[in-house]
Design brief:
Ribosomal Protein L13p, Chain: A; 123 residues; two-stranded antiparallel sheet; three-stranded parallel sheet; alpha/beta; 5 strands; 20% strand
């Protein structure tokens, strides 16, 4: 049964202090999908704002930052580009690493972009 009423906007705040990247990202993805709401439906992006505070205080071991490699393909022959998490944090900051991690946990469909717009990361 579907409802004609729109759910009220809600916010979910996550404190990232001394927590691992994956645990914070999975909690944020779960909230962005709307699974914490009683109004959850698969075919709608619910108005849930997720704010992550203290992203710069994430627990990231040196082994993880040096070992994690992000790859993307430019579309040209020989265009496979690789970048370690360490370099990505230096160039773009921890917020982009966190955003990329959460983006990878959201299903690849038309609702991905509207859901990711509801993510706010504070360093």
């Amino acid at each position: 049964m579907t409802s004609n009423t729109k759910p009220a906007p809600s916010t979910h705040v996550i404190d990232a202090t001394d927590r691992t990247l994956g645990r914070v990202a999975s909690e944020a993805a779960h909230a962005l999908l709307g699974k914490r709401s009683v109004h959850f439906v698969k075919n709608q992006a619910l108005p849930v704002k997720v704010t992550i505070n203290n992203a710069c205080k994430l627990h990231l071991p040196a082994r993880r930052t040096a070992g994690k490699i992000y790859t993307h393909y430019t579309g040209y022959p020989g265009g496979l580009r690789e970048q370690s998490m360490e370099v990505m944090i230096e160039k773009k900051g921890i917020a982009d690493v966190l955003k990329k991690t959460i983006d990878g946990m959201i299903p690849r469909n038309k609702l991905r972009v509207p859901r990711m717009k509801n993510l706010i990361i504070n360093s």
